[in-house]
Amino acid sequence: MPPSRVLSQRSIERLARQLTKRRRVAAAMSQSMFFEALEAQITADRSDLLDSDAAMSAASKMSYSLAAGLHDSLLRIDQALRRIEDGRYGNCEECGEAIAFRRLWALPTATLCFNCVGLTRSHEPEGVGAPERAQL
Ligand SMILES: [Zn+2]
Predict the structure, then answer these.
(1) What is the pTM of this model?
(2) How far is the CA of 103 from the centre of ligand 1 (A)?
(3) d(CA 53, CA 40)
């Protein structure tokens, strides 16, 4: 079954450009963060101050978690670019419906439509259905 083309070629091209731009920024940021962490590590190694250790490990922990976040967004951007290549981009992974262009424009890596995001967050209050009863 061929994927339904919900976005115009022009829209997809605009989003692809945006994704590529975001990818460049994220890649540049993660690189500069890596060097910052490295530099901080070197500075800490040279320093004789004992309490710089704690400050250093806090700083590097922070930049590592930031770097991990960037790595994560790079992955999501790559996945989105791959979806563009094989024509699956722009369809909701949950219901298969078209994701609104304005949602993709704001968040080009989105994989769920407005509906499914809303449903997963608010439509299923936990514990209401008394699942224990289901066993009887
Ligand atoms: Zn959906």
Answers:
(1) 0.66
(2) 12
(3) 11
